[in-house]
Amino acid sequence: MLNPEEFSALLLTIENTSLEKNRLDLAHLTTNQNCLTTSQIISIMNTFSFEASKLEFAKNAYDNCLDQNNYFMLMNHFSFSSSVTDLTNLYSNKVNFYNTIEIRINNLIE
Question: How far apart are the first and last CA of the chain?
């Protein structure tokens, strides 16, 4: 997890990166190596100009989100309902998958 100073430095670096694709690559690299809060994910999402970049980043960041129960807060940061639907479907599928795995593990333990 990044401390506040590290996150501020990261956010500034992302904001100062000129091309959207490069910002997205840097954001992906960071989330693949660190866990972030929903609030931090939203801050990074807001650096992107294009809806598709926001959605791609949000999808990629989910697995490394520390407070996945708050992921619904991202929904207010999309302009298109199709993006909300896409992210909601991903979120629901992952929650169902993790619940299934937890049930199977509990059955094995019993």
Answer: 34
CB-based contact 39:66 (threshold 8 Å): no
Q: Say which DSSP state 34 is in.
A: S
Q: DSSP assignment of 53-110, as one string? A: HHHHHHHHHGGGBTTGGGGGGGGGG-S-HHHHHHHHHHHHHHHHHHHHHHHHHHHHH-
Q: Give the pLDDT score at 29.
A: 95
Q: Residue 105 and residue 2: Cα distance in Å, rounded? A: 31
Give the three-state DSSP class for 30.
helix
**What mean pLDDT do residues 19-27 have?**
97
